[in-house]
Write a structure and sequence with these properties.
The protein is α+β, with helices and mostly antiparallel strands and 144 residues long. It has one domain. It is built from 4 helices and 7 strands. The strands form 2 sheets. The protein has a 5-stranded antiparallel β-sheet. Helix 2 crosses helix 4.
Length: 144
């Protein structure tokens, strides 16, 4: 398994509320990618490697693959709009969440499970679309 400064790759982070992933490259190096909230795709973020590895704490957090997927999809669902199956599922998540938000209460176990499952599905769908469009950082396998 590839590592960077002792961190096994792939590694997932939250950097000031932006999902960042650090992955191994085919040449034995590494690359960092951050979520682009305006497109839902990935932008190169190699300048953040030292921050995310050395700055964990404060506004930088290590995330599991599952937590990373959930955060990415929460942001995509909040900031993106469009048509098609992925956006219909984002609307479904909003509809499931609406009662809890209106009542200012935590999600029930059922609501949380539905939202988590839908977000896992939308992550795969969105990442597959990004792959088809040529995004070099797209990786639907993170959700598996």
């Amino acid at each position: 398994m590839a590592t960077v400064d002792g961190v096994e790759l792939p590694a997932y982070f939250e950097h000031y509320d932006t999902p960042v992933k650090l992955v191994a490259t085919p040449d034995g190096g590494h690359a960092a990618w951050k979520l682009d909230r305006s497109t839902g795709g990935w932008r190169p973020a190699d300048e953040l490697v030292d921050d995310v590895i050395g700055g964990v704490g404060g506004e930088i957090y290590v995330r599991s693959a599952d937590a990373f997927v959930q955060h990415v999809e929460q942001l995509r669902g909040r900031y993106l709009s469009g048509e098609g199956p992925v956006f219909a599922l984002y609307e479904t998540v909003r509809a499931i969440a609406a009662p809890a938000v209106a009542e200012r209460r935590p999600f029930t176990a059922e609501e949380a499970a539905l939202i988590k499952g839908i977000r896992r599905r939308t992550f795969v769908m969105f990442e597959e679309q990004l792959q088809q469009a040529g995004d070099p950082a797209a990786d639907p396998t993170i959700a598996s």
